[in-house]
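Last lecture ended with a question: if I hand you only a sequence, what can you say about the shape of the protein? Today we answer it with a concrete record. The protein is Flagellar biosynthetic protein FliQ. Below, first the input exactly as provided, then the predicted structure, then a couple of comments.
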Amino acid sequence: MFEASDAIDLVREALLAAVVLALPMLAVGMLAGLVIGLIQALTQIQDQTVSFVPKIMAMAAVLIACLPWLMSRMVEFTRHVFEDAGGL
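The predicted structure:
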């Protein structure tokens, strides 16, 4: 029988997996934004596209570099969910 605690555990695990999967890209985006903001403050260039394009490029590079790890984590989580669903 499916219990409320099982649903709570599943949601908790899903949220934790989402945070772990998003962390590399968000961290690089934050670091790139900080560096670009510092450069903009030093050079007094305040154009929005100057900060947007490098952050997107950095996050895309991290996504491409981390894609094998991200996919293995997603497959591991999905396998875990299906295995636990079989035991209910």
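Comments.
1. Residues 4-43 form the longest helix (40 residues).
2. The helical segments are 4-43, 48-86.
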